[in-house]
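Ops channel
N.P.: pipeline sanity check, posting one input/output pair.
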């Protein structure tokens, strides 16, 4: 049985819970810095994975199609609406 996805999901859920509980105790400047650090880390990982990608045209096409479908379906607007309703 593959347990990797379950471990990943558990880590994401635990991280979300701890982040929600502890974020109010952190100063604003640290929260902003952490967001920037995680964003830059994600960008770096993405660049490394793109460089290793054997099927770059397929990846670019999938990204373009995903963006096009998201724009046509107004996914960002729907996600923002759900976010505002849950807050």
């Amino acid at each position: 049985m593959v347990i990797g996805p379950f471990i990943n999901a558990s880590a994401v859920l635990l991280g979300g819970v701890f982040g929600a509980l502890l974020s109010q105790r952190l100063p604003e400047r640290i929260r902003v810095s952490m967001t920037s650090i995680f964003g830059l880390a994600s960008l770096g990982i993405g660049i490394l994975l793109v460089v290793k990608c054997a099927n770059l045209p397929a990846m670019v096409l999938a990204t373009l199609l995903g963006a096009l479908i998201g724009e046509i379906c107004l996914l960002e607007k729907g996600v923002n609406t759900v976010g505002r309703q849950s807050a």
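N.P.: looks fine end to end. Residues 54-87 form one domain.
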